[in-house]
Amino acid sequence: MFARSFARIARPAASSMKARAFSTGARASAAAGSRMATFATAGAIATGAASYAYFQNAQSPVQADSKPIAGVKGTFSERTFIAVKPDGVQRGLVAKIIARFEDRGYKLVGLKAVVPSKDLAEEHYADLKSRPFFGGLVDYMTNGKAPVVAMVWEGKDVIKQGRVMIGATNPLDAAPGTIRNTYCQVVGRNIVHGSDSYESAEKEIGLWFGKAGELVEWSQANSEWIQSDN
Question: Model-level pTM?
Answer without folding.
Answer: 0.72
